[in-house]
Amino acid sequence: MNGTTPAGNWTARFSPGESVRLRFINGSAMSFFDIRIPGLDLTVVAADGQDIEPVTVEEFRMAPGEVLDAIVKPQADSAYTIFAQSMDRSGFARGTLSPREGLTAQIPALDPRPLLAMSDMGMSMAGRKGIAGMNSGAMVNMPGMAASSSSPQVHSSRASFGPGVDMVVAKPRTDLDDPGVGLRQNGRRVLTYADLYTTGGALDSRDAGREIELHLTGHMQRFMWSFNGQKFSESAPLQLNYGERVRFVLINDSMMIHPIHLHGQWSEVQAPDGSFQVRKHTVMVQPAQRLSYLVTATAPGRWAYHCHLTYHMAAGMFREVRVNS
Ligand SMILES: [Cu+2]
User: Fold this and answer.
1) CA-CA 20 to 30 A from 196: which of 39, 50, 54, 150?
2) Å from CA of 254 to ligand 1 middle
3) Per-residue pLDDT for 131 more than 90?
4) How many angstroms is it from 306 CA to the middle of ligand 1?
5) CB under 5 Å of ion ligand 1: residues
6) Residues 207, 60: contact at Cβ < 8 Å?
């Protein structure tokens, strides 16, 4: 945390009763962090630097590249632990809010390591009851799995994306209110994208003039990552015309979360019903999820468009976006 190890215990001071605004920036290369401050509510007031309608939670997940501002009001004359466990539960970052020098609070135990299963791609409907994320019945098409050849819902065959793609989702889910693997039903109020609503709504009231669909594709064993089965070195730039409004539709055909970052202009995420939800620069797309956002091409030039997981970006989950003036 701020360059300090958990043992070093980065500490910030507060006076009991005051409001403290904390800006969380996930500056890591590959780690999703699940963040909470036991004993304090977190009132989230901004996402990626853009004000949102305040929402109070106990915990939130952040992908690399994401930014969240939260207000806390520590009342007691005691210390609080800022606890940020990595999504794979292999470790944690930690700091302390303290009214005085030298105080520390208890450090929570790591939660159990969540295991990704085919159920996270919708392969098994059993055991998914009550989990909002998969009630829409996402289906996956994967070689060697019985459901693949019998599924009537395939809209895009694996073969069309080539040998660098090991699975595609046949019927993606569109919900935004799933806290994600390892955070579901953990007894805490966990933030989801459905909770984020940017103050004032969209920057541009127009609907999109056209749509660009991109599958987030990969091959887990070969560690190949791409858009539409095409890595950066094989791809042509995506061309936007200055001033136009475009809908980007992202469909995650992999079992990993990909935080997708378009540089230069905002990504205005749509709710499942198509209405405006939240304005961000980096947007997490969960396994088997279909998510869309509107972009107004406001900045002429050449822009990076990529997964914010460094190894995925380096492997080819990257495109150039060109805004032509
Ligand atoms: Cu990725």
Assistant:
1) 39
2) 9
3) no
4) 8
5) 258, 307, 309, 312
6) no
